[in-house]
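Please check our next protein.
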Amino acid sequence: MGRRKSYDREEVLEKAMRLFWAKGFEGTHLGELVEVTGVNRFGLYSEFDGKEGLFKEALELYLKGTREAYQGALAKAPLGLDNIRGYFRSIEFCSDYHGCFMINTLTEKNIVSPDAFDEAKKMMAEIEGLFLDNLTAAQDNGEVAPGLPLAALAKMLVAADSGISIYGIISAKEADKDDIVDQLLRLFDAR
């Protein structure tokens, strides 16, 4: 008869997610995962297929929460610039800010598994699509000047989102972030 698990799987994933988020895949060592999660090496390998499997599942947990957050901000009616502004305002900097786990994963493209990279990349494409939906609605209701290249603007917003995430590591001041967002949206606001 096998031993009973003495840990909560979701709690282990949450703890691992926070460590990977703070240190990245490459910067996180198996010994640290053992210490932080309280699960021995054998347990991490048998339950999660080791560090790589644990990383992938921790990223999936993060992406699930992130998907709910961005859909809540960018998919609500009415679509338009207010949704985009609200999305960026919902990014919360703090003194212990580590950026966005999704963006951090994308920056480790040649280190993380192709599956983990693809999942993060797929989510960025979803966000870009929602930016485009909001920009299209904003142009239709006169918030954005006619004739602007909306697909390119949606890509620019994705690039800005990534940059803001990284900027928060350098300067975790909400006022700085809000100023950046205001100036960014002012570039194509027709009001």
